[in-house]
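Posting this for the archive.
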Amino acid sequence: MKPFIAFTKKEMLEYSRSYKIFIFLILFAILGMLSPLSAVFMDDILENFMPKGVKIEITDPTNLDSWMQFFKNGTQTGLMIMVILFSGMMAKEYEKSTLINMVTKGLSRKTVVLSKFTAALILWTVSYWLCFLITLAYTKYYFPDGKTANLGLAVFSLYVFGIMLIAVLLLGAVTFKNVYGPLLLTGGFTLILFLVNIFPKAAEWNPLQLANSNMRVVQGILKLSDLKYSLLTAAIVVAVSLVSSLKIFDRKGL
């Protein structure tokens, strides 16, 4: 257990020295503020971009508009930021052969993989929930009377989807010795999820539902019973990715 804690601390220290921690926290804090502010000032923003004489009637913004922006920013921007910044979690280790001395001195390869995953998970967790809390505070301020159904489930679903992407990224990072391999694997995996949606019977098992059906959850259209299979699939993907990463890294040259 001590080697695991020590290596995880080492990973967090490297994230700090490479400014990834600060990049994550700042960007996700900005996304958290932008979500409700975009909903509040959307009318003024559109007026500035529309040609003179053209008017668009827009209903007054509500708390649902704020959460719509949150999930839009989370899936399009937040997850993209995470994938890009975590894509090189093993590349430097392979490039500089920094793990050879550690492994030859007794550090378990399993510890390396699990610590990499844990450090990335910690950073994703803190950044994501910081973003959520900021959005929640601003939304409560601007829309104090607004009500949402199953907000916790909707937010948790997107969080789980992010964990799944981290596990897939780790698998790519262990398999390939560069930054591009994890990106291509994660991109290909996401593309497959979109293709699966073509088949209606498979859609309810598709973990993509955790990232693109959040507003339907907030609006009360979907409930936990509608997402349980998607959550189960995501958990299976995480487990398979971690086990595969452990096996591949155990056989891979450093």
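The first helix runs from residue 2 to 17. DSSP finds twelve helices and no strands in the chain.
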